UniProtKB/TrEMBL annotation:
It holds the Pfam family ApbA_C. Pathway: Cofactor biosynthesis; (R)-pantothenate biosynthesis; (R)-pantoate from 3-methyl-2-oxobutanoate: step 2/2. It is an enzyme of class 1 (oxidoreductase). It comes from Vreelandella subglaciescola. Coiled coil: none annotated. Catalyzes the NADPH-dependent reduction of ketopantoate into pantoic acid. Belongs to the ketopantoate reductase family. Residues 9-150 form the Ketopantoate reductase N-terminal domain. This is 2-dehydropantoate 2-reductase. One of its GO terms (cellular component) is cytoplasm. Residues 181-302 form the Ketopantoate reductase C-terminal domain. Its EC number is 1.1.1.169. GO terms for biological process: pantothenate biosynthetic process.
Amino acid sequence: MIGFTGGHLIVGPGALGRMLAHALAPTQGVTLISQRALPAQQTLTTPEGETVTRRLPVIRLAALAPIGSPALIHLTTKAYAAEAVAVDLAEKVAPGTALVLWQNGFGVQPSLTRRWPGPVLCASTTEGAYVVDDAAIVHAGHGESVIGDLHGRHLALAHSLAATLTRAGLKAAAVDDIGVRLWQKLAVNAAINPLVALYEVPNGALREARFDAELTAVIEEIAAILAAEGIAPPSGSGAAGWRRLVDKVIEATADNRASMLQDVDARRPTERGAILAPLIERAEHNRLPCPTLAALDARLAEKEAAFRLEG
Ligand SMILES: NC(=O)C1=CN([C@@H]2O[C@H](COP(=O)(O)OP(=O)(O)OC[C@H]3O[C@@H](n4cnc5c(N)ncnc54)[C@H](OP(=O)(O)O)[C@@H]3O)[C@@H](O)[C@H]2O)C=CC1
Ligand SMILES: CC(C)(CO)C(=O)C(=O)O
């Protein structure tokens, strides 16, 4: 068993986890928690193209001794791994320990807010990072993070974390409507990610006429579902407001291979369960049709099954 000396525990040392660790390490105690051995010598390429190498302590979750209360636990696994990891973690930390969920979508957030024994913050970020290998990541682009909790009970904690992240060079703000922010990001992810992952194209391809009918159908379904849930787009209203937001993101990220496409490229499961499933569930709850979203989900499931067969 390996000891842990306090500070920020970052569980899931992938792109986002290591980016947070690199940012926080100069001013805060940081420990990465992994599921397999990783080198402690870690390199980050900044959005400005600078390369920085740091020693980041890494402990395997299975080897982590029970600990008191770290400052915060950041959960930075993919959404589909988060609940199982949280169950393992809960056995090792004091019950009041705060958890920060960095996952996209709206699956693990309500569920772990109910189940985790301490405060749960949710973060929604437009920072962009990707993994090069076990010792290197790229922070591809600066973004912004918003942080809050689903029931508005931990705003002081959200403010304190946002200030810590901002001081560390990751612009962040505390918000009292994180649920709305998560759904708004989910709407963008649901409109863009499944299509680009299925057609294996960069985001900018969705500007082409051949995708217009499918993109329009997806956005109309999302708009109806979110209207029933009382979630409006950040500006404008209805399907036109969502379309404007999605078009803006497509334009701004035209060269991106979206995260779901990167998962397809790497033959990994996608986060469709965190992005499409909550919309489909809310559509069923509100007795709204969502044939386009359901078809995208089924096609992605088929693609993932084919990868599993490949091996
Ligand atoms: N990358 C980005 O720019 C952004 C990511 N996000 C969200 O953040 C989340 C993480 O994304 P990202 O960092 O890209 O994903 P990655 O796949 O790069 O990282 C996930 C990490 O979790 C690790 N992990 C999986 N299971 C466990 C476990 N049981 N114990 C410890 N670690 C585990 C993986 O380890 P292993 O390598 O061994 O599989 C991997 O290091 C996703 O929900 C994503 O949607 C949101 C906005 C931006
Ligand atoms: C907004 C978008 C689609 C940008 O690529 C994204 O967040 C992702 O790749 O998951």
